[in-house]
Amino acid sequence: MRGREVHLVAYPERGVSADDFRVVEVEVAAPGPNQVLVRNLWTSVDPGLRLRLAADAPPGYFPPFPLNQAMDGIVTVGEVVESNAAGFAPGDTVWHAAGWREYSVVEAGVPALNGLATLRVLDVSKVPPQAYVGPLGGMGLTAYMGLFEVAGLKQGDVVWVSAAAGAVGSLVAQFAKLNGNRVIGSAGSPEKVAFLLDELGLDAAFDYKERPVAEGLAAAAPEGIDVYFDSVGGEHLEAALGALRHGGRAALCGAISQYEADGPPRGPANLFQATSNELTLRGYRGSNFSDRIGEMQERVGAWLVAGDLVYRETVSEGLESTPLALVSMLAGETIGKTIVHLP
Amino acid sequence: MRGREVHLVAYPERGVSADDFRVVEVEVAAPGPNQVLVRNLWTSVDPGLRLRLAADAPPGYFPPFPLNQAMDGIVTVGEVVESNAAGFAPGDTVWHAAGWREYSVVEAGVPALNGLATLRVLDVSKVPPQAYVGPLGGMGLTAYMGLFEVAGLKQGDVVWVSAAAGAVGSLVAQFAKLNGNRVIGSAGSPEKVAFLLDELGLDAAFDYKERPVAEGLAAAAPEGIDVYFDSVGGEHLEAALGALRHGGRAALCGAISQYEADGPPRGPANLFQATSNELTLRGYRGSNFSDRIGEMQERVGAWLVAGDLVYRETVSEGLESTPLALVSMLAGETIGKTIVHLP
Q1: B8 vs B85: CA distance, rounded Å
Q2: Which helix (H) or strand (E) element contains residue B104?
Q3: Which member of B242, B276, B284 has the closest CB to residue A278?
Q4: Of A160, B37, B39, B147, which is most buried by a Cβ count within 10 Å?
């Protein structure tokens, strides 16, 4: 049997383009002992992938994607077609990390590169399968752990979420609202700001492209903030340092403003505020909390089933749309979780 | 009775100079009800004072020193001359925060500006009085809390201490050695590096002026570090971010390299390492841990009395030497605690 997969063919010089990828048809091997063959249904498009599209990934991060090979470490949900592994049967919905391809052959029990999507049967009796690429997967874990554990959200905290219309940010913002906090969101278009206010019900929101970030934040949170959720870095982080009150905390999960920036990344010039106001900046990666996935899925799953969470997706159809979906997401053109459906 | 005090007469444009200060002779008021008159013996010269020599102090920090007034918020040790306050008698050694003057009139029970040196009788039976301006005072508290609480020092952690020949750094480095850790120190002259190796017994030390900080650090800690104690900021912090291993922690207590820098302060360009390696950067001020001063004094006092701590001072004689002592310390010319003796 043959199937298609996406290969990276060149490390982009600056901005990623669809030309950096190629869709290749390959022979799909029959599953060996302890392996299953999965027909993939949904594959993920994450900002963090950008960091692996370079010959040198940041030290400590996941390794670069090798050129001209199938891409590993991307959460994907599919249906078991054939199984030689105990506990997996044809028709089971599973997740794994062998993404951006139509069929994957996955060995049971081998930890996924991202620590998260090790081959597992998913319960899709109450939620659609693609929820596991979003709120019940890595996005949910990153949001949940970042807010409740890394930032240590407390009652009464005023929370600012950057990229709040994005996959992780929209979850963080809603989790904080469900916890009873005042939540400010920022995003990069009037349409996104309307989404934050009208659909997510945030207390305030601003468009960071309309004026300097610090000004938008000051208008939305004149008294300052206690928690900042950072997926953006750069000017956003600087604005947060200026607004965080004594004892404030920032959870640093990404720096999308810096991934394709000209020149060296910009460090916050006002980092001394950390000392002055006794702030904590804590970087983390959701995947490193994979031992808490069960707890997250239970709590977030209950919110989902109860209809307490707005879950927006930007869906592309077909494997060949995957590279453009990434380009579009990095350009800030998508809302919610960017995801590719494999028909 | 008359006594002299130091006034700030101008906020320095760039580097501090002794000309920014004036020594003024004033009438010393007789102590009122609940007040004591103290003849000061030792007054402190701290890097953090630099931040208050500006019309705008960093938000959240102590306020600027007003011009043409006695300076408040500087830990000082002296002897009670006259007392109208219960619990204080002539001859008692006390500390208070009404520094940089020969005589202070201090009201009992009024919290000091820095939260720390509220008027209190000191036990000088086993340590010299000036220990309370150093290891048993704010310097000790900053070092102790920064290392054990803020950075959460653990067995096996490799520790890098910047400004390790300074008042706080030399304590941090020794506390970590007493805890059994491998400790690397950096400082800005061959003489200081010799002090770190020969007198403090650190495992490795380097002169950050000899080559780029990151290179010196890599040579001293080829396997990386787990804890970074930052009093310097700038290039030092950037080097630490590049060397901190997964889960590493940085305690940010100051940024002396930035206080008199040209242009805006330099934020670390590699701050994304915090996310990549799940690092925690936590800013703090020792004085905000004043509720733990008793615990610190007990533990550090025991080390002092046992002779386990090397305690170096750079002593200036006479109130009029105070401004130059500050200039000299900011220029990196002093070793250990910079302190002024009032004869």
Answers
A1: 30
A2: strand B103-107
A3: B284
A4: A160
Q: Does A237 touch chain B (CB under 8 A)?
A: yes
* Chain B contact present for A154, CB below 8 A: no
pTM of the model: 0.94
With H, G, I as helix, E, B as strand and everything else as coil, classify residue A337.
strand
Pairing of strands A337-341, A35-44: antiparallel
Residue B263 banded pLDDT, cuts 50, 70, 90: confident
Q: How many CA atoms lie within 13 A of B290 on its CB side?
A: 12
Instruction: Say if the ipTM goes beyond 0.90.
Output: yes
Q: Measured between alpha carbons, how far is A284 from B274 in angstroms, rounded to an integer?
A: 7
Question: pLDDT over 70 for what percent of chain B?
Answer: 100
Report CA torsion sign: A58, B163, B158, B297.
Answer: negative
A81 by DSSP, 3-state: which?
strand
Mean pLDDT of chain B, nearest integer: 95
Is the separation of the CB atoms in A103 and A39 below 8 Å?
Answer: yes
Q: Do the chains contact at B266 and A267, CB–CB below 8 Å? A: yes
Q: Do residues B232 and B209 touch, judged by C-beta distance below 8 A?
A: no
CB proximity B263 to A under 8 Å? no
Nearest CA in chain B to A272: B255
Please give the C-alpha separations between residue B333 and each of B166, B326, B327, B336, in angstroms, as whole numbers.
10, 10, 9, 10
Nearest CA in chain A to B252: A275
Residues of chain A with pLDDT under 50: none
Q: Do B272 and A288 touch (CB under 8 A)?
A: no
Distance separating alpha carbons of residues B69 and A248, to the nearest angstrom:
34
Kindly report the nearest CA distance between residue B340 and chain A, in angstroms. 26
**Host H or E run for residue B178:** helix B167-178
Q: With an 8 Å Cβ cutoff, is B279 touching chain A?
A: yes
3-state secondary structure of B124: coil
Contacts across the A-B interface (CB distance below 8 Å): 123
pLDDT of residue B257: 85
Q: Residue B21's beta-bridge partner residues?
A: B8
* CA–CA separation, B200 and B185 (whole Å): 10
Residue whose pair of structure tokens reads 């008793």 in the numeric block: B294
Containing B275, the helix (H) or strand (E) segment is helix B273-276
CA contacts within 13 A on the Cβ side of A121:
14
Residue B115: is its pLDDT beyond 90? no
Alpha helices in chain A (DSSP H): 138-144, 167-178, 190-194, 213-220, 234-243, 256-259, 273-276, 293-305, 322-330
Sign of CA dihedral A95, A98, A100, A103: negative
